Prior knowledge:
Elements: H1 8-22, E1 31-37, E2 40-47, H2 60-76, E3 82-93, E4 100-110, E5 115-123, E6 129-143
Amino acid sequence: xxxxxxxxxxxxxxxxxxxxxxxxxxxxxxxxxxxxxxxxxxxxxxxxxxxxxxxxxxxxxxxxxxxxxxxxxxxxxxxxxxxxxxxxxxxxxxxxxxxxxxxxxxxxxxxxxxxxxxxxxxxxxxxxxxxxxxxxxxxxxxxxxxxxxxxxx
Length: 153
């Protein structure tokens, strides 16, 4: 249920944060989404050794998941009626991630009608960029209001 003291935009942001929390995949990651403002999303997460590859750093799946999510939610913060779908995502991995806190920062770049473009980057505990990515996201036929997790806290 939406809190009456939230504006339409704020209610949408909180509902998207709730949607993120409700996704079963996020039970595998110690992470928290914050929609900072329209077009900007931030995910704080912990890299744990259980996501390491054989050479002792985070596997690329962790990079992709957090970059995609940060860019996706930055874009979906601008769309209040439909769930977006990732149609393409390009990654640039620049440094290994070790155990510890990481922030994924997503920002909308362009588009608001059918296709939206957003960038994201991963910042490690030392403040260094470890990866960046750009995604394209398309409006789906799925109404946000039909998704059980899409509800303001």
